[in-house]
Amino acid sequence: MVFKDNNAGGVGGAAVGGLFGRTAGAIAGGLKFKEAQTSMLVADARSTVQVAAAEGSTKKADLGVGGLFAGGGGAAAAGGYGSTNEGKIIAAALMDNYNNIVKVVRNDPALQRNVGTLAQEAAAGGQRQAGAVFAEGDVLGPKIAGVKLLAQPADGAKEIGTLARSDELVVVGKEQNGFINVQGANGAGWVKIVLVTKH
Q: Alpha-carbon dihedral of residues 174, 179, 184, 189, nearest 10 degrees?
């Protein structure tokens, strides 16, 4: 929330005059403006870097009217008032804010990815893979003794060697099929991501 103001401005007025010949009337009225402004930020969950920002605002007018009428030996009074709840002003500002940040994201190709429908994503199991995310140059180590270093990123590939718990591996390539490309003391190869951890 940037700010909210229950009385951001207004006008007031009164009029007195003859109505319909022998009838006298007085009318008073006023307008009061309520305003709110909000701000939203979108940040990358991994890096905490801000990737999008937008603001939203709304302004509503509350109207008050009152009157007194006299004539022919009698008098009558009437009044009315319309008030907008503070919560509605803030909610409207947040909705405007949300719409604006959606436009920011849609206009930035770097923040978009190709996805199917919800049914297609569910059937495909999404794009998630088990294990941590590592960057090139990270130093890793086996979680358990006996982890296999393979020639290809696939189960059943040729085995290059077996790793001990004390072995250190440096990430030299990208992830593929749940494996990560690493360089160790006994050579380069692939290990399962779920079996290694960052040192």
A: -90
User: Cα(51)–Cα(105) distance, rounded to whole angstroms?
Assistant: 9
**CA–CA–CA angle 112, 114, 116 (5° rounding):** 130
User: Of the candidates 89, 100, 62, 85, which has an alpha carbon nearest to the alpha carbon of residue 3?
Assistant: 89
Residue 65 backbone phi and psi in degrees, to 5:
-135, 135
This model's pTM is above 0.90: no
For the chain, give the longest Cα–Cα distance. Answer: 111
Average pLDDT across each block of 10 residues of the chain; the chain has 199 residues. List them in order: 58 48 51 79 82 84 57 53 67 86 82 69 55 81 92 91 92 90 90 90
Residue listed under structure tokens 């500002």: 93
3-state secondary structure the chain: CCEEEEEEEEEEEEEEEEECCCEEEEEEEEEEEEEEEEEEEEECCCCCCEEEEEEEEEEEEEEEEEEEEEECCEEEEEEEECCCCHHHHHHHHHHHHHHHHHHHHHCCHHHCCCCCCHHHHHHHCCCCCCCCCCCCCCEEEECCCCEEEECCCCCCCCEEEEECCCCCEEEEEEEECCEEEEEECCEEEEEEHHHEEEC
